Amino acid sequence: MTETGRAAFRGASVECASAGYGTELAAGATAADAVRPNRSLSVLISTHDRADLLERTIRYLNEAARPGGWTIDILVVANACTDRTHDFLSNCSSQGNAGAPQEHGSRLGLHWVAEPDIGKSHAQNRAIRVLTAEWVAFVDDDHRVDSSYLAAVCEAVENYPDADIFCGRILPDWDGTEPAWVHDTGEYRIYPLPVPRYDLGDKPLPSPEEKGIPGGGNLVVRRSLFERAGGFATDFGPQGHNLAGGEDQEWVRRAIAAGARLQYVPAIVQHHYVDHERLRLSYLLRKAYERSASVARMASEATSAGLPPYLFRKSMQHSLLAATALSTPRRRFHLVRAAASLGEIKGHLQARSDRANRAGRR
């Protein structure tokens, strides 16, 4: 476990903003269902200054079909928010609902906490101490859950009793107005995509980490796993709306090392909101740089490898190819790859600094 992950798990203190956490039965549940073990689910959303998107995300959760026999609620962590997020959440919790249209009927209970220290890892760690449900479903504040999302999560828990972590599909919420290049699968395709995607196909798959460590945007976790794996490392992950990442994958790696079993369930689907600002070249370059830095930092930490000299050569080659490219797709591809190569260099240097800091504390 990383030092920051261990400290976050042990030291987090939480104050819940509404009473009665985890006591509301889902629609269709019976008194007999309420006493069954392992039948409770909290949907966790961490948010920073995106009240409009948060409201949208909660609306789709309320509209999703709910299985009988489950206690399901929503916990929102407002992370250093300065917009109308607090007012919106206070209004939702005071009404005893999560903001769904009145005609929808029964609404999911909503509870929220404020975390003043900016950073998604701080927000997630804040949530760990207040969560009481046996299972925790992570939903990003810019996601739209599928109409069968809640039912698919609960069915997965019942169908795979030995699994500790479930991951599902994250699909960009394309509407046809996006540029054609985002769908390109050829020589000059852009990766990572500006809108996250995780899709291992339409069949369930055990041990999906063998094909790629899933991110945290669509995870379902057995809550007791935090006792073994610890909290989220605060030196990884986004702070505010910057493009740092890796806190979720770093945690999943630790969970696997602690013995967690993963299961991919394609029926658990979330759709990622498409912000057209993310389709600009400047955003592509920043994301390639920051996300590659996070991946390289984790990889270098795992292997204690030094800074590979070929990275400098690779970044220079891509920069030269971008400067001499005669087509827009080719220029865009090489610029993004050059930024990614520079990000890898940053990540290896960060890992070196991490190792030096740990050595200095011994």
Question: Could you write a compact summary of the structure shown?
Answer:
By secondary structure, the protein is of the alpha/beta class. It has eleven helices and nine strands.
Q: How far is it from the N-terminal to the C-terminal residue, by CA?
A: 16 Å
The shape is globular
Which class do the helix and strand fractions yield?
alpha/beta
Which class of the largest domain in CATH terms? Alpha Beta
User: How many β strands by DSSP?
Assistant: 9
Poorly predicted runs of 5 or more residues: 6-38, 98-104
Tally of distinct domains: 2
Superfamily at the CATH H level of the largest domain? Spore Coat Polysaccharide Biosynthesis Protein SpsA, Chain A
Largest sheet: 9 strands, mixed
Output the radius of gyration: 21 Å
SSE sequence, one letter per element: HHEHEHEHEEHEEEHHEHHH
Reported by name, the CATH topology of the largest domain is Spore Coat Polysaccharide Biosynthesis Protein SpsA, Chain A
* Average pLDDT over all residues: 85
Q: Helical element count?
A: 11
Name a few traits of the molecule.
362 residues, alpha/beta, Spore Coat Polysaccharide Biosynthesis Protein SpsA, Chain A, 2 domains, nine-stranded mixed beta sheet, 40% helix
Task: Set out the fold topology.
Blueprint: H1 3-11, H2 31-34, E1 40-47, H3 51-63, E2 71-79, H4 85-94, E3 109-115, H5 120-128, E4 135-138, E5 143-145, H6 149-159, E6 165-172, E7 205-206, E8 219-222, H7 225-229, H8 247-257, E9 262-272, H9 281-303, H10 310-324, H11 328-361
Parallel strand pairs: 1-2, 1-4, 2-3, 6-9
Antiparallel strand pairs: 4-8, 5-9, 6-8, 7-9
Helix pairs in contact: 9-11, 10-11
